[in-house]
Design a protein that fits this description.
Blueprint lengths: L1 H25 L8 E8 L7 E9 L3 E8 L5 E8 L13 E6 L2 E5 L15 H10 L7 E6 L9 E6 L11 H11 L7 E8 L5 E7 L5 E2 L1 E7 L2 E6 L2 E2 L13 E8 L6 E2 L5 E2 L6 E7 L5 E7 L5 E7 L5 E7 L7 E4 L3 E6 L9 E7 L5 E8 L12 E5 L4 E9 L3 E10 L2 E10 L1 H5 L12 E6 L2
Antiparallel strand pairs: 1-29, 2-3, 2-30, 3-4, 5-8, 5-12, 6-10, 7-9, 9-10, 11-14, 12-13, 13-15, 15-16, 15-17, 18-19, 19-20, 20-21, 22-23, 23-24, 24-25, 26-27, 27-28, 28-29
Length: 452
């Protein structure tokens, strides 16, 4: 009983210390969050009805949920909470599919069984030979040899996350083999380096598989939709930038997915190259409606081509051309519209905003095309957009600095004009300066809210 009383006393003292620490950390009333509006361009009334919600965490314990309501007279309110256990907001990972060249792999452990690692399967025999050649307790024993000694085609792999189908070649040697055969990038002319370490009994304790920088450049976007895998295949030589000869033609491939609900694999025999599409497609993304796939590509004339593919049939729904490069643009594919932030500066800050919206006939129309160069965006990594279809308005918002500042930057576009832009300097900027370390999980988070 006495021990329990002591424990409770200790816990009380710790809680009290945490509360005192929190007070010192916050440095005032928790809800005393305010904004100062600067760099105002245009009419703030054009932002009426839009709101920006920002989540700000300090050292895992102090949490502010602030909503800035835009309009003629901007207002804000804050909900504050304190947690005795450190807690941070979790960032959601956007779904993605990427076909890539498997040019590096490493594994460390005791008595490594190479057959347990798919990336090492083609090299099993060579690794066993190297383990016998190397002395006991070897460190960094290396062999470099032509890739053609172990395989005919450059190894390709598929990385995916958040898709309907768990297609991941790190778990399926069959899918790896199908993709490597289907696109058949010749292995001729490429080298591979294997480096091992062994223990006193010559068991493998580390393995590094590495291919030099002059290996094929294969990093192709894809999506899984409509029981099919779509991949924009466009391999280039890392040194010359030219398309690699001898492999499958560049373009968008549609590969049916077999057994999508359990142990999915790919139907290699019925894979098809979609015609009438540009070869150099660098962006492929599924619309939130799940029915359309959006793409962007550079054509030989230097312009950009974009458009939509029907996910169910693979048919090209629409193609448009623009006289500028969108290759580094920030693109948001929503339910029935696409937002493109382009014409980037050297610091990757967008200078133009355009919105394509799907009409009642199933065609996408450009509804907004505005110059936003007078806005004062300083960091593009946190930028979010919200399209108001009823009034054909676009809200663009971001933090002044993703990593350290909870101050906000906003812009509103309508038709072909940026009607409003401003920077809202947060009183919490000074509070952020009191911290020496900021975990990635504590970077400010942004949500856009439109009043109903």
């Amino acid at each position: 009983m006495k021990k329990a009383a002591i424990t409770l006393t200790v816990l009380f003292i710790l809680s009290l210390c945490l509360m005192i620490s929190a007070g010192a950390l916050i440095g005032g009333t928790a809800t005393e969050v305010s904004f100062t509006q600067e760099n105002v361009v245009g009419d703030s009334a054009s932002a009426e009805g839009f709101s920006v919600q920002s989540l700000f965490t300090l050292e895992g314990h102090a949490h502010w949920d602030t909503t800035l309501t835009l309009g003629k007279n901007p207002t804000w309110n804050t909900d504050f909470s304190y947690t005795t256990t450190a807690k941070a907001e979790s960032y959601s990972v956007e779904p993605y599919v990427v076909l890539y060249g498997a040019s590096y792999f490493s594994v460390y452990g005791n008595d490594i069984n190479t057959k347990e690692y798919l990336a090492l399967t083609p090299f099993t025999e060579v690794l066993e030979e190297m383990a016998q050649e190397a002395p006991a307790n070897a460190w960094g024993y290396t062999r470099t040899f032509p890739l053609t000694e172990v395989m005919d085609y450059y190894p390709l792999a598929l990385d995916s996350s958040g898709t309907v189908f768990p297609l991941d070649t790190r778990q399926s040697l069959e899918i790896t083999s199908i993709l490597t055969r289907l696109f058949h990038v010749p292995a001729n002319g490429y080298q591979v380096t294997l480096t091992i370490s062994t223990d006193s009994d010559k068991n493998l304790t580390s393995i590094d598989f590495y291919m030099p920088d002059d290996n094929p450049n294969v990093h192709c976007p894809g999506v899984a939709a409509g029981n099919c895998l779509y991949l924009a295949f466009s391999p280039t030589d890392s040194l010359t930038g030219e398309t690699i000869p001898g492999c499958a033609p560049s373009g968008v491939y549609r590969i049916p997915i077999l057994n999508p609900d359990s142990s999915p694999t790919l139907d290699e025999e019925n894979a098809q190259l979609l015609s009438a599409l540009p070869e150099k497609i660098y962006l492929l993304d599924k619309m939130d409606n799940g029915q359309d796939i959006f793409f962007l590509a550079n054509n030989p004339e230097g312009d950009v081509e974009g458009g939509w593919i029907d996910a169910a049939s693979g048919e090209i729904m629409q193609i448009f051309q623009e006289s500028e490069d969108f290759s580094d643009a920030t693109v948001f594919t929503e339910e029935n519209h696409v937002v493109i932030l382009s014409r980037l500066t050297e610091n990757a800050i967008p200078q133009r905003a355009s919105v394509w919206v799907k009409d009642s006939h199933g065609q996408y129309q450009k509804m907004i095309d505005a110059d936003i160069s007078q806005a004062t965006f300083s960091d593009c990594r946190s930028i979010r957009t919200l399209y108001d279809e009823a009034e054909n308005r676009l809200l663009i918002a971001g933090f002044q600095n993703t990593y350290v500042s909870p101050s906000l930057q906003v812009a509103v576009c309508q038709k072909n004009t940026m009607t409003y832009a401003a920077t809202f300097i947060s009183s919490q900027d000074e509070l952020r300066k009191t911290t020496f370390f900021q975990a990635e999980e504590e970077f400010p988070q942004l949500h856009l809210v439109q009043a109903q």
